[in-house]
Amino acid sequence: MSAVRMLTGDRPTGRLHLGHYVGSIANRVRLHQRYESFFIIADLHMLTTRNTREDIDRVSHNAREMVTDILAAGVDPARATFYLQSAIPEVGDLNTLFQNLVTVPRLERVPSLKDMARAAGKDEMPYGLLGYPVLQAADILCVKGQVVPVGKDNAPHVEVTREIARRFNHLYGEVFPVPEMIASETPTLVGTDGQSKMSKSLGNAISLSDDAETVRRAVMGMYTDPNRVRADVPGMVEGNPVFTYHDVFNPDRAQVADLKERYRAGRVGDVEVKEKLAVALNRFLDPIRERRARFEADRGMVDQLIVDGTERTRAEVRRTLVEVRRAMGLTGAYQQVRRRAERARRATAAPA
Fold it and tell me: Which GO terms describe its molecular function (predicted)?
């Protein structure tokens, strides 16, 4: 392995949205030209909160949609390896070995796990969800990932990966790199309701694949300053989701500054501010929509990309697992048993 490797990805729960873009995809687009890039379609992670047969039946479709969104956002398919997590059973073997290198109290201190359980309507923490960061460590280290783009919520997970890599190397010898985290510039994007981060399940998301009219409707219905009952009432810009989106997606900084000044002075209405945001968002999304249409028109291209990437990744993971088992002495243990059994068989079969 010569080039520095990056590992990142998402659970295949549907199309990606603007929150995904600012939280991770923008970083991936920027970084994948610099690093050898692996993109995981994390369907085993999906099972920690969505594990009905209907959820699983949608994985194939959702995987294709998700990969298409990532490509449409600007990732070059020639410089990215996409793979389906559940198609590589060796990752589960590595996960089993890593489970012994971290304690339950340590996992219980990962703050986002309880939030994930609560968002999924779980009254109690599933075992698989508690072990989410351990499986994520297996995902990252199975290809010896050296850099991981992360949003705010995922940083504590990757810190567990770093601890597991250090612990393994201390016990068994230097096998794994300790991956570095690359934080996104905008780690969390509030949803259109202004109440929580953007999420498909909460219905407060704008998808990367939404058409122009869908985006406009979502923007016009956005939460804004609740105390502003008329356009001539001075409004709050700080914490106002509409202006948060302007700051992230509107490249016309002079226009944004003018809107903020007039909003604070009560000289502009919410409708104008939102209409200009809708225009800015659609200009941002137009190239993504165009690229998506091209990838969708190339029938079978995305599926083949996933197949090729999965086969390549599985070969990498198999090599890693052999190295891990050799470092731990597990391969030697079985060989000793096999040699003893062979000697006993020969002794029994030898003529008197």
Answer: ATP binding; tryptophan-tRNA ligase activity
